[in-house]
């Protein structure tokens, strides 16, 4: 990692969680600048970093030269608990958390090919109800009889299995409105997106808790989508085609590795709830001010130090704002036009919830910063 445009550069090594992070930085850079460089490399917010050199704590306002940090120096980074971004500190290769399975002795009865015996009564029930429920079934493949349900299918739930192949045949479920693929450990090539995005009536899609690193441009073809959950993956960006989802109301992208949001997010004019918490964001596009129906925005555990200038002025329905563990201060918020009206809405919502509290219950917490 290098800082461009610096004249007197030195190479140092930052020790963190068993890793050695090489960095080239100017002697005249301040310690706070070094912390900003380390943020995307460690997932630790600058205010949660303590840099120690030769037994001394380095001070944010001092330069490396003033701190007597020289070429080849080794600096130790200690992270304060609770100030991690994304999925916490980046250690070595990220590993998927295995899905726990109870009654493993019973599951051993599944044959080596992992095929589910055809249950004619079950298939008939699927066709009548339109709901195919196969969650937590220890499956490694989608049963063939699923495709026989065709256009009668309204919902497919294969979450929390071990399925690593969603074939093009999924397109034959042409009337499907809800599709839950979460918790299978899927990689990018496990989903036939052409087949999936041919489902023009699909309103709810969840691919959370998998191993996806990218989302394809075909996602924009899901023109009827109302809810999209891609949380808890390894995504580093969102496709610009997400702006084509003009009927999208709920977007959950939390717990990924996203460092920027495309400007076209402002075209998703129906968005009411957006969760971007636990990512690597340092700023939001100004087009967030175009989301006039936005009611809840979750931004905790990011490196943000400001919000789009028009967000309070234009987003007049916004009443929930989660800013825990960001760099945004009250002084920054009070300077934004429309802040007072937002604060009044937030307090009004808080009070309404308090009115329905049961006496003796736990202290109220709306899940947003106590601004």
From TrEMBL:
Family annotation (InterPro entries)? Leu-rich_rpt, Leu-rich_rpt_typical-subtyp, LRR_dom_sf, LRR_domain-containing, LRR_R13L4/SHOC2-like, Ubiquitin-like_dom, Ubiquitin-like_domsf
Q: What is this protein called?
A: Ubiquitin-like domain-containing protein
Record domain Ubiquitin-like: where? 10-81
Would you tell me the Gene Ontology cellular component terms? cytoplasm
Record keywords? Leucine-rich repeat, Repeat
Keyword Repeat listed? The answer is yes
Name the domain of life this protein comes from.
Answer: Eukaryota
Q: Which PANTHER family match?
A: PTHR48051, RAS SUPPRESSOR PROTEIN 1 (PTHR48051:SF1)
Q: Which organism is it from?
A: Salix udensis
The family database entries (PROSITE patterns) matched by this protein are listed as: LRR, UBIQUITIN_2
